[in-house]
Write a structure and sequence with these properties.
Blueprint (H helix, E strand, L loop, with lengths): L5 H25 L11 E10 L2 E11 L2 E3 L7 H11 L5 E6 L2 E13 L4 E9 L9 E4 L11 E2 L3 H17 L11 E8 L8 E9 L5 E11 L2 E12 L10 E7 L8 E8 L2 E10 L2 E9 L4
Amino acid sequence: MRITSPSMNRWSIFSQVFLLVSIGIIFSLSQPDFANAQPRSRSVVFAVSGNGAEASMDAVVIVDGKQLRTPYNSEKEDASKKFGDQYFAAGKVYRLIFGGGDAGTVKVDKWSVGCNNIHAQVTATTSARLGGKVMALATSSDTLGKRTIARRPPTEAERTAVLALMKSIYQQRRTPANLMASIKVSNLTATDLDGDGKYEMIGSFTLAAKNKFERDLFLIAKPQGATFRADFVKFQAYQPPPEEFLSSIDYIEQLDLDGDGVGEVFAQQGGFDGYALLIFKKVGGRWRQVHDMIGDAC
């Protein structure tokens, strides 16, 4: 007969209890936390352009948590139709974003298939004066863009300082001196991207030479005392195709998509028989393009 000491019995009982507790902990850690689980929100962001209340709207991106996803595959008719039926249904109302914040609403009137993609016709109710290069965003989200509107024309001093910076960039890109006076300002907007109370300047500039050689600049300029420094430069020098489609980039609007305090910059780029909708994000202190979606044009 095997004799077991009291100390051995105590150790055996302790070992069994420890094993059961450990199994319980492992089991609990392996199970989903249903009580605290939160469904990831998916929100659509649209680009809005037009004149006054009459506007057109294109889907740009689906914000899925912190992921940016393409709204649908524009090459698949059934995917486009499914999206149109769901998000472009007549009567749908979305929040309008201007200057990174709430600026009214848009109501969908109808949607249709264009030459390259689908788009909706909407009626905008807003104090923002949309028209030409002045565009806006709309979103299905209840939380994105909940900040004070920060968008205005530049002051005369800001405009002068940014134009000086722009000319220096063109000169650095070996633009002939006799062409400098022909540079055109497509749009120049003041907006506060990071909420520090200091307005960045976002500008689009074009220059067409007599030989039709194009020089385009998309610029994000950051205030530095009484002047500005280039925070992002997208300079394009190219010969347009025979159809004369340009690749110039124009600012749409800004919106903080991931809650990091810095608004992502939405822009529209021209192209062959259409345009692209772009998103730029500041990553590691530098701006880079993080998303694109084809638009529609006929």
